[in-house]
């Protein structure tokens, strides 16, 4: 210790930590601005992909519960594309490129970084999901009265899927694997969400039950009933919420682990 | 105020995969001890792969050392790595996290994540952007900027939100002279006005000579010398640097020239020699008189630079050092 340090004696005062909500807001805002530049083309892709799938299925499915499943599955697919696939890629890339160092050398709570990024990606899915749900309802002649349920479906399935995406991106040993896992997750959400459940073989049905997006799809698809069973819808959304909390917690842990090696 | 003792970090051996050969175990920092004084601009100089960045990552809490201690301003950072972010402003080599943000938002967000309230973060952002001459490109994303400008924007982000210690890993890479000067002025201002201590990683010898108070020369994970730039240069004060540039090739048929070749570092038509003063005089006389002069394009005599010190210390890997 130098002479000055010895005279000063006590340890220097530490600068304050960044608090959770202000730093979450800062990360969210920064991510949203990123998305504006880099993600709009991808959002178009996500929306057109979902609308394309519905147009294809229009030739196969006439109406009834299958039509509901197709519209609900396609709408939630937009969330899966952005929140799961793109977020897994983003965190994989950030980790591989040394970008996590930037956050790790700032006094910011890990949860703020993960939740801020996840929140921004989830909110970015809103327009695409709404456009898809409305287009689908028109295409298949479904009632739109209860589409307000999207207000709960998007953030809750967004939380579950973005938590999963962030965790995959941060845990994957290499960037390519993070990308691959994100793609696979989205393919699973596509196949298991859009194809009507009662036509699937049993083991695939179980896989469907394991996928968090399924519960968002179910909740949305039930809301197309004339008199939806709101208790079941709420239960589905509760599953999304629980998975969301759990996967975001895992993602936060994974972030901590990835940041300090 | 910043004391590092016997820091050791070993990277485990990696098994070879397809396309990547196996690498043996590497001791990236091999028992490093340093003392940096308060208000000092202290440099870590060494070639690529010498272990500078590994050392810095251990100082900033990004990497846990296998053994040894790091004490910064009375805080034990090996035991409490999370305190590093509240003491140190760090500029890493990568800008991945900021690349898609605009310059202004990158600085503001970093300030907020350093714990500043919105209003203060914006005020500091404006001040730092102005200080570094970035105001005009504040609205452009980092990705769209040239390498030097992007680096400058990262420096701006590192300076928003005051810290008593700044750790800058090659801050001026790719910058033009104007930007470099702005960076050094900003760093010096923080030292003069606020007593900040600056730890700087560089592999640029010229920069090291002009801005550093003291410098530690690092090679293969060890500190091979630590002194002021002038103090280091005194070690080779008895020597003179002679540079010869031949027109096409060295006239080796002349015995005096052939004799010089043994002590020359050759790169193409260019020879560099470190000689005692009388030897240097004799060498210059030999090449400027007689037949050798016809083959000579240019020559110079100079007092030794840090690069010569580095060579004299036995640093073999000179290719990593940059003269610019």
Protein model, in words:
- The complex is a heterodimer of chains A (261) and B (324).
- In chain A, 78% of the residues lie in helices and 0% in strands.
- Chain A has 261 residues and is mostly helical.
- Chain A has one domain.
- In chain A, helix 8 (150-171) runs parallel beside helix 12.
- The longest helix of chain A is centred in the N-terminal third of the chain and has 33 residues, at 64-96.
- With 324 residues, chain B is of the alpha/beta class.
- Chain B folds into two domains: 2-231, P-loop containing nucleotide triphosphate hydrolases (Rossmann fold, 3-Layer(aba) Sandwich), CATH 3.40.50; 238-303, Alpha-Beta Plaits, CATH 3.30.70.
- Chain B has helices at residues 52-59, 84-87, 103-113, 118-131, 147-159, 177-194, 205-211, 229-234, 255-261, 277-288, 291-295, 306-312; strands at residues 2-11, 26-36, 41-45, 67-72, 75-76, 88-91, 165-169, 197-202, 214-219, 222-227, 240-246, 264-267, 270-275, 296-302.
- In chain B, the strands form three sheets. In chain B, strands 6-7-8-3-9-10 form a six-stranded mixed β-sheet, sandwiched between helices. Chain B has a four-stranded antiparallel β-sheet with strand order 2-1-4-5, with helices on one face. A four-stranded antiparallel β-sheet of chain B has the order 12-13-11-14.
- In chain B, helix 6 links the parallel strand 7 and strand 8.
- In chain B, helix 3 (103-113) packs across helix 4 and helix 3 runs parallel beside helix 5 (147-159).
- The relative contact order of chain B is 0.14.
- The mean pLDDT of chain B is 87.
- The chains are: A mainly alpha (261), B alpha/beta (324).
- Chains A and B meet through helix 1, helix 2 and helix 5 of A and helix 2 and helix 3 of B.
């Amino acid at each position: 210790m130098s002479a000055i340090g010895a005279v000063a004696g006590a340890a220097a005062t530490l600068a304050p930590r960044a608090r959770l909500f202000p730093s979450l807001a800062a990360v969210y805002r920064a991510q949203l601005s990123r998305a504006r530049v880099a993600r709009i083309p991808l959002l178009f892709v996500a929306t057109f992909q979902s609308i394309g799938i519905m147009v294809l299925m229009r030739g196969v499915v006439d109406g009834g519960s299958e039509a509901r499943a197709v519209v609900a599955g396609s709408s939630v697919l937009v969330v899966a594309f952005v929140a799961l696939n793109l977020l897994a890629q983003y965190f994989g890339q950030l980790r591989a490129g040394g970008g996590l160092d930037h956050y790790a050398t700032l006094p910011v709570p890990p949860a703020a970084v993960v939740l801020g990024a996840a929140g921004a990606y989830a909110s970015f899915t809103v327009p695409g999901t709404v456009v898809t749900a409305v287009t689908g309802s028109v295409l298949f002649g479904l009632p739109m009265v209860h589409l307000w349920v999207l207000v709960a479906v998007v953030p809750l399935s967004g939380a579950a899927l973005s938590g999963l995406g962030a965790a995959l991106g941060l845990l994957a040993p290499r960037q390519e694997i993070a990308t691959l896992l994100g793609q696979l997750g989205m393919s699973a959400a596509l196949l298991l969400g859009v194809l009507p459940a009662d036509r699937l073989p049993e083991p695939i049905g179980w896989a469907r039950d394991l996928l968090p997006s399924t519960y968002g799809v179910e909740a949305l698809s039930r809301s197309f009933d004339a008199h939806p069973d709101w208790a079941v819808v709420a239960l589905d959304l509760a599953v999304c919420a629980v998975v969301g909390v759990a996967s975001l917690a895992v993602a936060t842990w994974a972030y901590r682990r990835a940041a300090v090696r | 105020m910043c004391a590092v003792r016997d820091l050791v970090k070993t990277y485990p051996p990696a098994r070879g995969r397809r396309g990547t050969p196996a690498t043996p175990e590497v001791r990236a920092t091999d028992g490093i001890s340093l003392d940096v004084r308060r208000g000092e601009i202290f440099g870590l100089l060494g070639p690529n792969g010498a272990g500078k960045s590994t050392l810095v990552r251990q100082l900033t809490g990004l990497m846990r050392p296998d053994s040894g201690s790091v004490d910064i301003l009375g805080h034990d950072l090996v035991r409490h790595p999370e305190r590093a972010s509240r003491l140190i402003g760090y500029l890493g080599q990568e800008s991945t996290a900021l690349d898609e943000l605009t310059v202004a938002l990158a600085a503001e967000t970093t300030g907020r994540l350093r714990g500043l309230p919105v209003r203060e973060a914006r005020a500091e952002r404006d001040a730092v952007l102005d200080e570094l001459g970035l105001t005009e490109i504040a609205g452009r994303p980092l990705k769209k900027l040239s390498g030097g400008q992007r680096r400058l924007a990262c420096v701006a982000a590192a300076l928003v939100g005051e810290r008593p210690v700044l750790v800058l890993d090659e801050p001026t890479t790719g910058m033009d002279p104007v930007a470099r000067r702005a960076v050094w002025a900003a760093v010096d201002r923080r030292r003069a006005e606020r007593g900040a201590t600056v730890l700087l990683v560089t592999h640029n010898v010229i920069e090291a000579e002009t801005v550093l108070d003291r410098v530690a020369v690092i090679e293969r994970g060890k500190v091979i010398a630590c002194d002021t730039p002038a103090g280091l240069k005194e070690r080779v004060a008895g020597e003179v640097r002679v540079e010869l540039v031949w027109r096409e090739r060295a006239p080796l048929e002349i015995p005096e020239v052939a004799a010089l070749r043994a002590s020359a570092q050759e790169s193409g038509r260019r020879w560099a020699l470190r000689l005692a003063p009388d030897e240097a005089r004799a060498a210059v006389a030999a090449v400027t008189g007689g037949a050798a002069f016809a083959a000579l394009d240019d020559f110079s005599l100079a007092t030794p630079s840090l690069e010569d010190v580095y060579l004299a210390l036995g640093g073999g890997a000179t290719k990593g050092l940059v003269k610019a």
